Amino acid sequence: MEEEVATAIGTPNIALVKYWGRRDSALNLPTNSSISMTMDETLCTKTSVAFSKNLPEDIFYLNGEIQDFRHGTEKTMKVKRALDEMRKFAGIRAKAMIVSKNFFPTGGGIASSASGGATLTFALSKALGLNLKAKELSIVARQVSGSASRSVLGGIVKWNRGKKRDGSDSYAEQVFDKSYWPDLIDIVCMISGEKKKVSSSEGHDLAPTSILYKARIPYAEKAVERAITAIRQRDLNALAEIVMRDSNNMHATMLDSWPPIIYMTDLGKEIMAKIHELNAAEGEMVAGYTHDAGPNTQIITIKSNRNKVMSALKEVKGIKDIITVNQGDGPRLLSARDSLITPDLVPKG
Ligand code: ADP
What pLDDT is attached to residue 276? Predict the structure, then answer.
């Protein structure tokens, strides 16, 4: 296959103030704004796309497994929609082959959907020669997975909730380049790589059943602004508290949903206690934990505190892996040599 091809690499992001609950499920329009740190390529997704007139239909391989575009999951169908939208932008009809691989657990709460959605959108735009601005990329990526809207940019990124029904004002913008506070890091504690039982999409749709959810919406909106101020002042003490409280608030809302959703594990709770212990011993917040919709714990801190955090984590038994991640730049193109599209994946005839 030749024609329009591209291979890209992109990364997850860790939300410092989280997206939970949507005002429109089809378009992934959130009820509150959110803010995140885009990760460097320590954890990453690679995605190759190729458009070809010879393909009888769209094909999507994720982690070596073919995905069902007709009866797939909500997120798979949203990949198809993003593909259709990009084709419309480019004014072409050719079918596409998409081959993607996550170099970290898929569906385990480390935002594979964010990494995957942003990398795919970027690869599609490059393959089709579309010179899309970050805003346009963010809007398309958002429709694959809400948090993907933030992974199209590097550094510290805010996703504005927007108010319009068509979602044209709901996109992400970079607030700070990664060089603004390069000391800020994320320590990812891998507790489980297992696929979560309740997908994020199902969880979002249950948010309105929670009594706490109504209070969360204005609270999170303010927390985003407070997080921006804390980052502007490079104030870890303030940021760590905002991050921990927002994570706890979201998980309280999840537990308060009906039926209740529980993503956090006992090990996650143990890490929380250890970080509180560490902060108390230090007399200030030297680290803040956060849990996405999944079992794994992430710890926001600065490079000079890393050893203290690692010592505290050593006392928690059962963490499978600990990975330190810096801030990243967002998706970028790889060379043709890195293509994941191998001849055996291309349909014959
Ligand atoms: P996570 O916490 O890993 O984001 P979710 O349940 O929210 O978990 O999303 C996982 C889903 O995201 C997958 O089942 C798949 O539909 C989609 N996804 C994951 N990785 C990719 C990828 N590389 N490209 C496209 N879609 C992806």
Answer: 98
Instruction: Decide whether any atom of ligand 1 lies within 6 Å of the 73 Cβ.
Output: yes
Residue-averaged pLDDT of the chain: 96
Q: Which two tokens stand for residue 181?
A: 């506070």
Instruction: Return the CATH number at 20.
Output: 3.30.230.10
CB of 100 shorter than 6 A to ligand 1: yes
| 76 lies in some domain | yes
The 3-class SS string of 200-239 reads HHHHHHHHHHCCCHHHHHHHHHHHHHHHHHHHHCCCHHHH
- Cα of 116 from ligand 1 centre, angstroms: 6
Q: Based on the structure, what is the number of domains in the chain?
A: 1
Index of the ligand 1 atom closest to the CA of residue 196: 6
Quick: pLDDT tens for 121-168: 999 999 999 989 999 999 999 999 999 999 999 999 999 999 999 999
Q: Return the residue whose CA atom lies nearest to atom 3 of ligand 1.
A: 107
pLDDT surpasses 60 at 273: yes
Give SS3 for 157. strand
pTM: 0.97
CA–centroid distance, 84 to ligand 1, in Å, is: 19
- Closest-CA residue, ligand 1 atom 18, reads 113
Q: Is residue 1 part of a domain?
A: no
Residue 302, ligand 1, Cβ within 6 A = no
Residue 232 domain boundaries:
6-345
User: Mean pLDDT lowest for which of 53-57, 71-75, 287-291?
Assistant: 71-75
Asked if residue 96 is part of any domain, the answer here is: yes
Alpha-carbon distance of 178 to 218, in angstroms, equals 28
